[in-house]
């Protein structure tokens, strides 16, 4: 195996194998198929990067296709935003496609399926159909309408299309197998009646195809070679192939290539919500200012906050392509933007919490324009001029009247350097009636100007402060952002709504002072405010008012905060832990009973398995998620315990437990397992 082969991800291995087995490289075609029911978020960047990255690697076309099959939730605004975001990331699509463009072709194929006895109109309620589907361990039962004649099905389906029935009275189902162990194959719905205005087709249709029917056939029409999707679609692959293979018989001359579906792990990020539904709730309830609020994980929000396409693409590249899901720490994303901006952002000075500094021995009325290097990481970045005068603003946090020996900022009797300027020494302070410092008085070393070449200019002092000349300062609004959620997994708490974890301090607005160089800054320009972090010019900026968004700090402060919080929590728990006492042993916890039942589960006959399954479900009501998660790592040979764990997980999810990376990984492993009972339980979830 060559070094180049070793570096391929598993999807690239699949493609290379297909090419080695005779596939024409000219037949390679990929697609990114978003649903236009919300803005793209950071989780989508992985799918975007994979598909468009493969297009770049193999010089193959990549379609942008909008899977617009649900007009009740789709809008042109979302279409426009998605196109804007993908272009901003630096990708170009070959064709702009819409599933709605294929509605007539899908309808025509459906008529052929009905004629071949492969689809029928069902007139039951949704509740009846759901009950009829059975469970992973119980086969489904046929609909009483399953054996309608071809003529009756054709008539009813045509009348559905003509708008003769109310929504919910009829659906069209594929006729597959109600006993298939994969529940998605138990006569899935292909069409439903829906009276809603479509953003492209208007009111031309009142029946709309379901996603599983539309998606695969859209791939087929576009002759996509490799249909790449996230891991939750793996159980759908069997249905994807069933539809594809039947349609192929109708149109193989026109569409000779059959797509191949393959799945990869989604991108999950800590301190982040990835659900479009939940993100929409944040917008609708005015927790944020819109989809592009800089606190949102949307691509639009990240762009407005100051993130760069290069940083996001580097993040996706670093995360890589995997078959197993996990949760990526958001600090990795922050690291990537920090690294990028360190190389590209000009350094400037801004003061966010000002206190007045007066240099008493500096001549009144005098001003100097000093050289300030734009970016020490880029030798071609040049420099700009910054004004210096007798009265300056410095950060209030950069002065202490009384400080210890380890304090290296300004204090009385000690020296620090002003960035790009002189060495100063604290002399005294002026206070108001409440004892608050209103002015700091100092003196400066007249020979210590940075870069002047004098002996004093190279004298070492332990601290360097940023500053702004009061006479020249430009007022600016600075929006300082923190993480939108205070919890690492805000959507994964069984008994709590994710909204409970919204950080009330995620935005603070500061009236700051910046150097005059920034008066010429344009919307989107990014800067490093020295010693403070990276900031960009917000789109709300006007000719009269500069507004900056904080992109990220210079260092990851959250890691330190988290460590301190964990230490405090452990200390509190140890203090409150009761001392051991001679007590009777408490009753066995529910999770232990479940483990005991699971040990012999696979040895039981079907009847006893059903009874045991019911008992596990009953016990699962008393099991917290924290007790269950450790069982996700149960050894493969202990199939019964893993089945019991999956049954319990199903109950927890039904009761509101949010899915997370560990849950999805456990389910994904189960779907790949050789034990049919475990696979069946995983499919039901």
UniProtKB/TrEMBL annotation:
Protein's recorded name: Glutamine--tRNA ligase
Comp. bias (Low complexity): 570-587
Source species of the chain: Kordia algicida OT-1
Short sequence motif named 'HIGH' region, residue ranges: 34-44
Domain Glutamyl/glutaminyl-tRNA synthetase class Ib anti-codon binding: residue ranges: 345-445
Residue ranges annotated as motif 'KMSKS' region: 273-277
Top-level enzyme category: ligase
Chief subcellular location: cytoplasm
């Amino acid at each position: 195996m060559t070094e180049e082969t070793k570096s391929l991800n598993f999807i690239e291995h699949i493609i290379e194998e297909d090419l080695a087995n005779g596939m024409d490289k000219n037949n390679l075609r990929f697609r990114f198929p978003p649903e236009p029911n919300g803005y793209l978020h950071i989780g989508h960047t992985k799918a975007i990067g994979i598909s468009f990255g493969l297009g770049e690697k193999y010089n193959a076309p990549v379609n942008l296709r909008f899977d617009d099959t649900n007009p009740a939730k789709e809008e042109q605004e979302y279409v426009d935003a998605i196109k804007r975001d993908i272009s901003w990331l630096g990708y170009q699509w070959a064709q702009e496609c819409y599933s709605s463009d294929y509605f007539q072709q899908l309808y025509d194929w459906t008529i052929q399926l009905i004629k071949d006895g492969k689809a029928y109109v069902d007139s039951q309620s949704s509740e009846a159909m759901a009950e009829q589907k059975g469970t992973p361990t119980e086969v489904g039962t046929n609909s009483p309408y399953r054996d309608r004649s071809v003529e009756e099905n054709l008539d009813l389906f045509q009348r559905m299309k003509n708008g003769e029935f109310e929504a919910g009275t009829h659906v069209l189902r594929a006729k597959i197998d109600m006993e298939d162990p994969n529940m998605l194959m138990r006569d899935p719905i292909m069409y439903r009646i829906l009276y809603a205005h479509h953003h492209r087709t208007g009111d031309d249709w009142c029946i709309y195809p379901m996603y599983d029917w539309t998606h695969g056939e859209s791939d087929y029409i576009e002759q996509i070679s490799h249909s790449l999707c996230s891991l939750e679609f793996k159980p759908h692959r069997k249905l994807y192939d069933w539809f594809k293979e039947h349609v192929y018989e109708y149109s193989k001359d026109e569409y000779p290539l059959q797509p191949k579906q393959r799945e990869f792990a989604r991108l999950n990020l800590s301190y982040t919500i990835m659900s479009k539904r939940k993100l929409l709730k944040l917008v609708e309830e005015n927790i944020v200012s819109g989809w592009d609020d800089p606190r949102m994980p949307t691509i639009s929000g990240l762009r407005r906050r100051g993130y760069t396409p290069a940083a996001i693409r580097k993040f996706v590249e670093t995360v890589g392509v995997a078959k197993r899901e996990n949760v990526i720490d958001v600090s990795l994303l922050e690291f990537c933007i920090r690294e990028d901006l360190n190389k590209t952002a000009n350094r400037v000075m801004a003061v966010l919490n000002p206190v007045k500094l007066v240099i008493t021995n500096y001549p009144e009325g005098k001003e100097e324009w000093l050289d300030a290097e734009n970016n020490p990481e880029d030798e071609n970045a040049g420099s700009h001029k910054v004004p210096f005068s007798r009265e300056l603003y410095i950060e209030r946090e950069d002065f202490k009247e009384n400080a210890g020996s380890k304090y290296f900022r300004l204090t009385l009797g000690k020296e620090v350097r002003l960035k790009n300027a002189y060495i100063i020494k604290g002399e005294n302070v002026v206070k108001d009636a409440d004892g608050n410092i209103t002015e700091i008085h100092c003196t400066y070393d007249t020979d210590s100007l940075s870069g002047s070449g004098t002996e004093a200019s190279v004298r070492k002092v332990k601290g360097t402060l940023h500053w702004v000349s009061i006479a020249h300062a430009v007022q600016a609004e600075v929006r300082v952002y923190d993480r939108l959620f205070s919890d690492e997994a805000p959507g994964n708490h069984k008994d709590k709504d994710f909204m409970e974890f919204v950080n009330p301090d995620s935005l603070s607005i500061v009236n700051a002072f910046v150097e005059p160089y920034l008066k010429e800054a344009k919307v989107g320009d990014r800067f490093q405010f020295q010693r403070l972090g990276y900031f960009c010019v917000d789109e709300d900026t006007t000719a009269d008012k500069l507004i900056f968004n904080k992109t990220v700090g210079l260092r990851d402060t959250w890691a330190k905060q988290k460590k301190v919080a964990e230490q405090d929590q452990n200390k509190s728990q140890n203090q409150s832990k009761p001392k051991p006492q001679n007590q009777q042993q408490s009753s066995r916890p529910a999770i232990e009973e479940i483990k005991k039942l699971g040990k012999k589960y696979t040895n039981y006959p079907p009847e006893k398995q059903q009874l045991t399954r019911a008992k596990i479900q009953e016990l699962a009501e008393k099991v917290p998620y924290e007790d269950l998660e450790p069982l996700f790592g149960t050894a493969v040979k202990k199939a019964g315990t893993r089945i019991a764990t999956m049954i319990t997980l199903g109950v927890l999810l039904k009761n509101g437990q949010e899915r997370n990376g560990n849950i999805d990984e456990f389910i994904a492993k189960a779907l790949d397992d050789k034990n049919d009972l475990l696979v069946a339980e995983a499919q039901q979830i």
